[in-house]
Amino acid sequence: MSIAVIAGLGNPGLKYRNTRHNIGFDVVNRLAVGLGGSWRVEARFEAEVAAVQAGANKLLLAKPLTYMNNSGRSLGALLRYHKFGPESMLVIYDDLTLELGRAKLSVKGSAGGHNGIANLLELVGPGFARYRIGIGSKPNKEMDLADYVLSQFKPAESQIFTERMPEFLDHIRLIVDKGIESAFNIINQRITTSHERSHHQ
């Protein structure tokens, strides 16, 4: 099944802008700009939605407005309305088990402590593709997890994301154009950082 919905996870409102937990919103916003989409609020889905054309593919971009922990309520309503299964959706979100700016594509697995994904697994079911973007781990063990994911990126960290954004967008186009299976090997291999490369050689 090809991808029909690309959802970025995050929290709505100014106070959450540029926080680690909102990287999914940031990426779909950039995707919408690149594909000439304009956002409109769809009350029945509790989401902002933009319909775009990417090559031969019609896509719906979505940003749930339910706050992160209820992402499944919003995206479940959208999928049911359009009669799409979970496998038609790609979800973009932050992952603190991945190094800052690193990206990984997966389909299976647990929520890994991510409340938005836990809610999606509960209300939508497994089978959706996941494009996970590393936000780095907590600076110290004592720091509250919620405080960390809701913290703002430091300028140097924002710079890393600015530099990586074209690569993220290329990956998403690859997933849409070539399908999950073909994209897996390329994405999960390609982004190895220089220090990781030296370990593997």
Describe the protein.
This protein is of the alpha/beta class. The protein has a single domain (5-200), classed as Peptidyl-tRNA hydrolase (Rossmann fold). The chain is 40% helix and 20% strand. It has seven helices and seven strands, in the order βαβββαββαβαααα. Strand 3 and strand 4 form a beta hairpin. Residues 194-201 have low confidence and may be disordered.
Question: In percent terms, what proportion of residues is strand?
Answer: 15-25%
Number of strands: 7
Structural class: alpha/beta
User: Per CATH, what is the topology?
Assistant: Rossmann fold
Q: What count of helical segments does DSSP give? A: 7
CATH class, named: Alpha Beta
Number of domains: 1
Overall pLDDT score: 92
Major sheet summary line: 7 strands, mixed
Q: What is the chain-wise order of helices and strands? A: EHEEEHEEHEHHHH
Distance between the termini: 37 Å
Outline type: globular
CATH superfamily: Peptidyl-tRNA hydrolase
